[in-house]
Each structure stands twice: as structure tokens, then as C-alpha cells.
Design a protein that fits this description.
Low-confidence stretches: none
CATH class: Alpha Beta
CATH architecture: 3-Layer(aba) Sandwich
Largest sheet: 9 strands, mixed
Number of domains: 1
Order of helices and strands: EHHEHHEEHEHEEHHEHE
CATH superfamily: Acetylglutamate kinase-like
Bound molecules: uridine-5'-diphosphate
Number of strands: 9
């Protein structure tokens, strides 16, 4: 029988910013390779991994709508397309080291990827494939953090693991305040009432309503992704 780990099925959220690493290019191949290697290590233990990718390294709808007068809905579709680029890059990287990976998009792009079909996604996971969900929720005015919470609930994953460039959630901005403390655990209420910039409100309340814990952790520390995926304590745990 399989040894038991904390999580059986997880939803890893990788923001666009995290994919960019410290590169001036949109994507740092060292980051995608690190993600691929660490995901490979945990899928070997039978942990099922689904990934939602962001797109902020390429295009963020809300900022462009503000600057250019572009209609928000149009800007957001460009943002969603940006997530597809990241997804294809990540899929190619994963497959280059032998991890079977499927991309599913929230709106149809049949020549590029499968459409999102919940049951099919679950089937892929059961077969040990990694599934990357792209194009967010498929709707403007949402974020990929909300897509992560939504897909997590839909596929009955047990946790949202939010990979970022910081160690977790602090009680103040660590870039401005050197005495800012890294918080170990937080309740959903702490996040919403103190306006801690963890996730947008839609995403965090969706997690709360569905009792989905969220772990915010630093993906640039080697080994951290596998630790988070295996259920070891890293970063900040939000729940309860
Ligand atoms: N987006 C959207 N609907 C969604 C998810 C994303 O319209 O369900 C658009 C939105 O414009 C957003 C962009 O895609 O700015 C990139 O996603 P996000 O900002 O969440 O990426 P991240 O911050 O994780 O890199």
C-alpha cells in the first residue's frame, strides 16, 4: 500500500511574477525547471498535482485597462491568453523531463490544449498526469487566484499551495519594515479583516466557504515546492 502523506491531491498556484524569477525576460527557464523537478519528485510518491498558472509576468488586465483606456473585458482576455503562454511553457518543461502533463484551458483553444472538462481533469490526475489549468476562470474581472480556489474546489483537491517570491505572509511589508514578522498561521478572518495582501477577496472567501486551506510559500528556496506539496510546514498556513 502507498505510504500516506498529508495531501492526496493538491492545487499549486504559480503566479506569473514567480515564473519570471529575477530575469528581465518574462519567464525564467530555471524557475520552470525547478518547478518541474520538484513536482516530479512528489508525483513519484503518488501525490496528484494540478497547477493553476498566472499571467502577470506578461500582461495584467486591470493595470492595462487603467493606463490605456482599453475596456477591462478586452484587457482581461489578453491577460487570460498570457496564462496560456505560461502554461504551454511549463508543460513543455515538465514533459522534457518525462512528466506526462496536460493543459486544459477555460475557453476553447483546441489546437493548443484540451478544453477544461472537470471529469477529464480528475481522470488525468488519477492516472498520475499533472494537469495545468490555463486561462484562469475564463471570465474577465477574476484572477488566477480565484481560478485556483475554484478549480481546487471542483476537483476536490485538499489545499491551495500558493507559490510566491516571499516566504509567506508578514504582519507588515517586509520590504519597507525590517521588523515585519513572518506569520505562521492565520485565519481566513485575519486575512479579510486586516486586508493582508495574500489573495484577492473573491479568492480567499471562496476558499473559506469551501474550507480549503491555503499555504503561501516561497518557491525560490530550493526544495520548498516539494516540501509544500508533501505537506511539510513551509510559509504561512491560512485556514480555520
Ligand atoms: N484574468 C481574468 N480572469 C481570470 C483570471 C485571469 O481576466 O479568471 C486575467 C486578468 O487580466 C489578470 C491576468 O489574466 O490580470 C493574469 O492573471 P493574474 O493577474 O491572476 O496572474 P498572476 O498575478 O497570478 O501572475
Amino acid at each position: 500500500s502507498k505510504p500516506s502523506y498529508k495531501w492526496r491531491r493538491v492545487l499549486l498556484k504559480v503566479s506569473g511574477e514567480a515564473l519570471a524569477g529575477d530575469q528581465t525576460q518574462n519567464i525564467d527557464p530555471k524557475v520552470t525547471m525547478a518547478i518541474a523537478r520538484e513536482v516530479a519528485a512528489v508525483t513519484r510518491h503518488g501525490i496528484e498535482v494540478a497547477i493553476v498558472v498566472g499571467g502577470g509576468n506578461i500582461f495584467r488586465g486591470s493595470s492595462w485597462a487603467g493606463i490605456s483606456g482599453l475596456e477591462r473585458s478586452s484587457a482581461d482576455f489578453i491577460g487570460m491568453l498570457a496564462t496560456v503562454m505560461n502554461a504551454i511553457f511549463l508543460q513543455a518543461t515538465m514533459e522534457s523531463i518525462g512528466i506526462p502533463t496536460r493543459v486544459q484551458t477555460a475557453f476553447r483553444m483546441s489546437e493548443v490544449a484540451e478544453p477544461y472538462i472537470r471529469r477529464r481533469a480528475v481522470r488525468h490526475l488519477e492516472k498520475g498526469r499533472v494537469v495545468i489549468f490555463a486561462a484562469g476562470t475564463g471570465n474577465p474581472f477574476f484572477t488566477t487566484d480565484t481560478a485556483a480556489a475554484l478549480r481546487c474546489a471542483e476537483i476536490n483537491a485538499e489545499v491551495v499551495l500558493k507559490a510566491t517570491n516571499v516566504d509567506g505572509v508578514y504582519d507588515d511589508d517586509p520590504r519597507r519594515n525590517p521588523n515585519a514578522r513572518l506569520l505562521d498561521t492565520l485565519s481566513y478572518h485575519d486575512v479579510t479583516s486586516q486586508d493582508l495582501s495574500v489573495m484577492d477577496m473573491t479568492a480567499i472567501t471562496l476558499c473559506q466557504e469551501n474550507n480549503i486551506p491555503v499555504v503561501v510559500f516561497n518557491l525560490s528556496k530550493p526544495g520548498n515546492i516539494s516540501k509544500a506539496l508533501m505537506g511539510e510546514r513551509v510559509g504561512t498556513l491560512i485556514g480555520g
